[in-house]
Design a protein that fits this description.
Elements: H1 8-17, H2 22-40, E1 43-46, H3 48-63, E2 74-78, H4 105-112, E3 116-121, E4 133-134, E5 138-139, H5 155-162, E6 168-173, H6 179-185, E7 188-191, E8 218-223, H7 226-236, H8 241-244, E9 264-267, H9 278-293, E10 297-299, H10 308-323, H11 329-340, H12 349-357, H13 361-384, E11 387-390, E12 410-413, E13 416-419, H14 425-431, E14 437-444, E15 450-456, H15 463-476, H16 486-490
Parallel strand pairs: 2-3, 2-6, 9-10, 9-11
Antiparallel strand pairs: 1-3, 4-5, 6-8, 7-8, 7-14, 11-15, 12-13, 14-15
Amino acid sequence: MQWSFTTATDLTAALRAGAVSSVELTDEAIARIERDDTVINAICVRDFDRARAAARGADQARARGEDRPLLGVPITVKESYDIAGLPTTWGMPAHRDHVPVRDAVQVSRVRAAGAVVLGKTNVPLGLQDLQSFNEIYGTTHNPWDHSRTPGGSSGGSAAALAAGFGALSLGSDLAGSLRTPAHFCGVHAHKPTLGLAANRGMNPPATPALPVDLDLAVVGPMARSARDLTLLLDVMAGPDPLTRGVAYALTLPPARHQRLREFRVLVLDEHPLLATGSAVRAGVHRVADALVEGGARVERRSPLLPDLTQAARLYTRLLFSGATARFPVESYEQLRIRAAGLGAHEKGLDAARLRAMVLSHRDWIEANDQRELHRHGWRALFAEFDAVVCPITPTPAFPHDHNPDLFARRIDIDGVEYPFFDQLVWAGLATMPGLPATAIPAGRTGAGLPVGVQLIGPMFEDRTPLRLAELLEQRIGGFQVPLTLRTAVSQGRTGRSGAPGAPPA
């Protein structure tokens, strides 16, 4: 039997039952990477010798009667996480020789849980793109269509999961960097509540690995099933021991409901600033129909929903002010001059991005105060609803676009062009207030590309959207093996998850 596409939950059960060894799983994963990653290019840093040693150690530990949450399960890690002895570059050529001597706190946690780390997955330059390519490691291709991006910045992780390169992956999210790749590659991801999972060691190579309270960014799990997200989040969750003490533990409340018919869900498929592509809209409708058929209470609008236009503009101010805060003085001055030349009538998101890049601290404080008002609005909404279903981006995976001027790029939405960064408005809906959001597969387009949606939940109630994701997976299906890999499936060379031949949504 082959195991490459089996869920981590099922792998753990098989390991406990003695149906397979960690060495066998690891050797199979390595063989698949060596065979298929030449084209996909998801694994940018291989660590096979240490992985095999870790697998042997996992099998020995199990033989001694040990049992840990991820004992013997092969996984991958986003390149931006520090792993002792491996390069952490964030795709930046100036740091191609940066090799940390300590693991990131999350790498330490998955190792302590028994995971076998196969290597690191590719990212865009500085993690600042919705694609995954850089001068050091090249371009990662979407396993469903090699002419298209797997997304970014956790695109290498999503592509690795879709291709069967390990059962889980560690990613991160600031502008949809977990959710967009999951949507583009047909896998699952969870953006945790802001501050839920410690981030030390997931920092640019030029900065010290210190415990920092980030403004928008989070680290989180990626997987091929919803239940696996919970499995990995339970390992990742909790504060940094350097700031709260090793004995301190954060306990998340249970999901609000266990049955689909108990959920109250608000479904959104339109944004006032951006069109929603027909393929993504169909995915949202498919999820909405499944909710209705399962007996959930579904609404399409609510006066409690915070203003989407205000939310998008506020997210833009917070995101881009942080992204440019460490720009060289010369670059900052050029941006300041350009921003000063904007007319009062220029109210679009392009203008908002430029103004945000030179935001003063006084203006940032004002923006942060506005964010608190939005958070309060979300609290009121989640008193009446348990989750919000909405797009992640307005389109499925788009063709590779390596134009170095990101502001000159365009995104095609059903034949109409929009500024490239406008597609961030849906991801920002959860990011700006720090809410948890679970990305799930929602079918495929007529051309066979995956489509996903996100389930946004109440702050620090991550288990609620995660449980809803499990219930929806049972009703509409989840991950499927990419069409480009179906030949291997039909010949019996892959694992159990991802039913070959399933029709597109």
